[in-house]
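QA checklist item 7 of 12: single-chain prediction sanity check.
[x] sequence parsed
[x] length recorded as 531
[x] structure emitted
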Amino acid sequence: MVNYARWNIVVTLVVCLLGLVYAAPNFFPAVDETGLDETPGWIPHEQVNLGLDLQGGAHLLLEVGVDTVIKETLEATETEVRSALRARGVDGERVDYTGLGVQGPSVRFTVRNLDDLHEAVRRVRDINPELAVDSTSDGTVSLTLTDEAQRERQTNAVEQSIEIVRRRVDETGTSEPTIQRQGAQRILVQLPGVKDPERIKRLLGQTAKLTFHIVDSTVTPQDINARRVPPGVMILSEPVTETSIGVDYAVRREVAVGGDRLVNAQPSFQDGQPVVSFTFDTVGGRRFGEVTSQSVGEQLAIVLDGEVVSAPVIQSPILGGNGIITGRFTVQEVNDLSLVLRAGALPAPLTILEERTVGPGLGADSISAGKIASIVGLMLVIAYMAVSYGLFGLMADVALLINMAIIVAVLSILQATLTLPGIAGIVLTIGMAVDANVLIFERIREEVRLGRTPISAIDAGYRRALTTIIDSNLTTLIAAILLFQFGSGPIKGFAVTLTIGIISSMFTAMMVTRLFVVVWLRRRKPAALPI
């Protein structure tokens, strides 16, 4: 163990140097998210990311309205059932029915002529294999989603919502957000450093379901006021604003073009007013062109989350897959609407169940307390090692400082998020970092008492302590890995810093301190060890 190969020396020095270089940016004040103040250009600019509990931000617990997904599926089924029953059969007859609509968890209708019951069941059975079709002797037919189909839709809705939330948060530029599933239909969102939590709530709370519908020109304003509309038509309103009283429109239920075909949406200006320009994909552009070609002179309702944003008259076919959304928008609203349209629509609405805003003052207090704890712990450990082991203790103290630098450097390189439990992991590492050195130095003392020479005592001390060091650190490392695997949030932060600390402390004990001891031993060639 006293023989230290040249390549070992080079590797040890390079790792220590890189640790100091990558840790250095954390000692300079950050100007913003893109640069550092007066930081030399030759060193990296990555700093350790601070978690929600250290730099403040927003904590939201969201619930996915999975029942809405089931309801929308049933409403779509209702439209398909109406078309199937109205289609002429082999005999040229339609199925006469009444009372078609969504009732609870089912789509139901009643056949007027019981002789048509079998034909009605046959027609609707092929609509969707996930629907269970039941009929009664009085001619009532019900279509219900199977339990497996409902569970699958709920699971997909939550997973899609998590992905959409992640896209929207990423668009805002928030660094190191925590977005994870909690329970069956809830999503936990933690956004460190957010300056405007209300805007984030608006962005996440907006379903952003964009659809285009043709306005039914046959329905009169009197019919709309009386809520008398034919089947396949629904009444939607324009949102009430300071400049709008909220006009009602009778639009066809059938979606002319869906917002899922959008590939881009950007804020823009038209006639000095902020608007959203959008672009469809190839299929959506072709469909949009067909719809506008067939509906020249009619109004096209642009519907966002169940409200008519605008309903311009189609003057001519709109080809090329491009268009604009006009309305009484502010610049900020146009920017946010473009953002959510680019990220995609949520499959179901989100409800905020819990909201907490952590101020930066609380985080500053936590950082200050963590610094004090770390400094006090570091000083006590340094003093103890110096008093207990003399010169060798001072060598271990230098290795401990390098160990701290390596931990900070690794956190910076990985862009890991440092939380308050993470600071606790670092403080714990300070005490554990010298544990390996203590084992080695105590073993060297025993060898000296047995009458060994300095070189022989050091060689035996390192060799015989190696197994104990590996065993003790390996068991702690296993515990840290399990904490990371099965823990969440702060527990993972603690596990990350503890894992990095264990690995770096083993490196500094077996390589850095040993390098100091070997270099001193070769130069001084002492007759006795100062330990």
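[x] summary fact logged: The longest strand covers residues 262-270.
[ ] second reviewer sign-off
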